[in-house]
Amino acid sequence: MTDPALDAEALRERAVASLITARDRTTLLTSCVDEPDLTAQHSPLMSPLVWDLAHIGNQEEQWLLRAVAGHEAIRPEIDGLYDAFEHPRAERPSLPLLPPDEARRYAADVRGRALDVLEAAAFDGTRLTEAGFAFGMIAQHEQQHDETMLITHQLRRGPRALTAPDPEPVPLFTGPSEVLVPGGPFTMGTSDEPWALDNERPAHRREVAPFRIDTTPVTNAAYQAFIADGGYDEPRWWTAEGWAHVRRNAITAPLFWRRDGGQWLRRRFGVTEAVPPDEPVLHVCWYEADAYARWAGRRLPTEAEWEKAARYDPAGDRSARYPWGDAEPTPEHANLGQRHLRPAPAGSYPAGESPLGVRQLIGDVWEWTSSDFLPYPGFRAFPYKEYSEVFFGPGHKVLRGGSFAVDAVACRGTFRNWDLPVRRQIFSGFRTARSEEI
Q: Is this model's pTM higher than 0.85 or not?
């Protein structure tokens, strides 16, 4: 029998490491630019970086200091300023936000007290503290805002502020273009992943018909063929809403791309470069992904299909945590954690391949699916409705798999992301599927 004290210590170590990793990244993202860049709104789609910084601290205070430890509020007067539902992003620059130095001090003060709470935590008693859930939730929340801040850095104009090594070059992928996923039931979602969020729960059986799915995400070269074939000029590939959207906004290529003579260029974190043909395509909205799939004679996978391709192990008729099994991700498995500032070439990370032979299902680019963001059977909102429940419905499409901007703590085979079908500033790509003829 496992010693509960050892389990608690392992949980404590994981929580501490996850919180520290997130804060180190937050510090990098908010210290690499000057104060004017922190307080400016670089796009109406995004908050000023300084808002994210104080919001991170405020959420940590509300959940770890107040809800878990029962402490009095440190700065109750700022709760409304950093309530994401009270103030839309476009109006946040006009709020009386904490200046950068004050925001840093506030977040550091909260973190110091939170680590004291963590040191004394028993990890039992309530669902919020069981298995360290609240600490994992806050680490994931901070990493999600770190990804949001990285998106802001990509939207920001001016010289580059961030650097990172490129992924290792790999030989051009010459494996099969698609993989057969067998039909039948599989277990979707989770009931026993300690830090899984409410929309990932509960585990349930889902029937999926046989289908074929791309071995790798769709590449820039493949997407350029769609453009060259007049994909943006032919309404038959688009939904009515998608066609209206690209016409209204004069969209003719992925966000940040532009044509220069005979080649495509892109802007990436302050640098203009040639679009690399073998990387997964990035910064496309759901409408663009759906149109490409139709043009290619295929379709986007459903969310259930994507998860079966990512988690199902036919040898044991089981669903694993990740495509490669239950072990935590390593740099050999996937491109995660802002280790690089770009996707790796298609076909990279053979160690991360699923038992069925599908690659790069975790990391590199978020992958659009055809599915609306809906609750699983038996869903219960926890610990607050605004995390998932208020977004359920046909207005949001599901993305899966994470991107190079996602940390491992906020990415697993069951993790669900969602966004409006018009969004392109996110690190989104896709792969296609087709039904198997029976």
A: yes
